[in-house]
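Record type: monomer structure entry
Structure origin: computed from sequence
Chain ID: A
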Amino acid sequence: MTSLGVTDTLGIPGRNDMAENRKRNRTLSTSANLQGFLDDFGRFSRRTISTSDMRRRLMSQTFDETSNGIPSETTSLLSEPEPEEEDPDDLKSHTISNTETIIHLLKGNIGIGVLTMPIAMCNAGLIGGVLGMIFVAVVTIHCMHTLVISAQKLVNKNPEVEFLDYADTAEAAFLDAGGRWAKCGKHFGRLINVFLCMSQIGSNAVYILFVAQNILPIVETYLSPGWNYRIYIACLLVPVILTCFVRNLKYLSPLSVLANILEFVGLGIIFYYIFATPLPSSTSLPWFSSATNFPIFFGTAIFAFEGISVVLPIENQMTNKKDMLGWNGVLNTSMVIIACLYISMGFFGYLKYGDNIASSVTLNLPENDVLAQCSLLMFSVAIFFSYALQFYVVMDILGPNIIKPRVSDRMYYPVEYATRIGLNVFTLGLAATVPWLDLLVSLLGAVKMSTLSLMAPALIDSTAHW
């Protein structure tokens, strides 16, 4: 007879041993699932941010053959760099479901813009802000649809091309239109890359300004050094440069996972403070603001919808790409969720704090409350980590297209690292010279995001269907 927990002479485990084995298997399975999620999330980040140079060369060769005699230099922008070593898993073996696509679209769009929605509502009024956000959301979503439709049409016309990103789609659409359009294709593709670089550098300046202004009240509460926010920006220079020295996006992907967890937890804390006490009556605030303030609202609102550059990379990874579009498709579902989040944060945040609303709603939280300080710290860490990911996009464009063709192989890395340092110094200097977070966000939204989110998709759609 075998006692419990003791293996008999035939090697049959006892009841306790079997229970322990099942528990161990469940633990291993949970660990494997978590590791698989982290691997998939990291793979998504690499494929969303990084542009495949192999795909660039393939597109260049394809459109050279179909561009009605346009010289090969027209597509040289897409064929300069040598491909980096790429993970085979990143090619075609991993696709994402519709639910995962929604999650990734939420990740790509929800950023610091959601924290500026209350001040945006202040510039438009309670009702005017809601109506304005609905208008901006509808127009932005429509432009996303036109960009996806144009990219799909161009890929279908060229079977050898598997995927086009934003700049590729812009150049390919002009080349496919032929005539005078084709002569502008190379320059328009470069222009998109220029605006993408400007977008990332401008966003990073906003990020640094946000981090400095949010860690300032925490440090002042406990240490009281009496520093200006510019000193905090200067203190961030060395950590920022060190994180931006990481050249392999694979090592930055875990930071993306942590940043998104911290952001969503921080948003939950903000909503807790908004609804912790009864809200004032909606009649206590103006329903419509002055027309002179509406341009500031528009710039802030359009800045919040910052994810148009990730729509095509995400669509490329979908198992069922046809589910991306349609009135109840993945894109509409994701953007409606995002628009509802923005409207809710703006409406209730402005209703809660009224005319005392700060440039970021996090600055309205109680300074001496530990939970509020945790929220500020969470957002500061999350935005700091997001800085390196945004900066990767800049170097992914400048490195192969600007630096590599102009320097020798021996000097490439020194020049690239010097460029990284110079760009970070410039970005932090820009943040130090503009202390008004809300106005900087509105300016960037009016200049760069309106170009990438509104004007460029309209031109691409016109040329793709010429």
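Annotation 1: Residues 300 and 441 are 6 Å apart (CA to CA).
Annotation 2: The chain is about 70% helix and 0% strand.
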